Amino acid sequence: MTIAKLALQALLGRRRFFLLLAFPVLLIGLVALVTALTDGDAAFEILPGLGYPLVLPLVAILAASSVLGPEVDDGSITYLLSKPVSRYGVAISKWLVALAATLVAGALPILVAALITGDSTRAVALFVGAFVAGTTYSALFLAISAVTRHAVIASLMFVLIWESLLGNLFSGIAWLSIGQWGLRVGHEISDQLPDPANLPYAIIASLVVTVVGVWFAGDRLRSFSLRGED
Description:
By secondary structure, the chain is mainly α. The protein is built from 10 helices and no strands.
């Protein structure tokens, strides 16, 4: 709990927190504007096309990099790792904070924006999918933050090139896209969402990436302290 509180303080006390709020506010405003000018169906298309491959992962990047990245950058992580606590416990605590921030500032605004379009069923479907994708994104980006000092840049490249650009150009990328896995889970609730991949595969792949991501972050922190580097 102490580690989680410190991570939350680090997240709320940085300028990134305002960026964390800016993306969902802009998304909700855009959906509301399009709904007012056209109709709910046209506005709804923004969410799986923009909310999932861009807004949600950007929020996850900011959250995950804020709870771990700064400590790695300034070297203060060594003080934390000098304490007799499990490195995996540290990773799990920080992931839970990043996950909570991702769900509040990423998944919840997608639900609000979807409700503005006027269909509660597809809104719930989008939220469930965003919950799945946000959980996986936060674990992956936490692992990246534990590996490199340039975690934000590396994560942005993954989102912009793989999830957004290539994901929209090639249908086969859906099998390796976290956002598409979330959409596939949400499709079970509302068939108005895309059906990009096999459901069991989407669920298993999300679980594997989440577990491996958090485990890898903990393992990286363990070897981090043993070598005394950074």
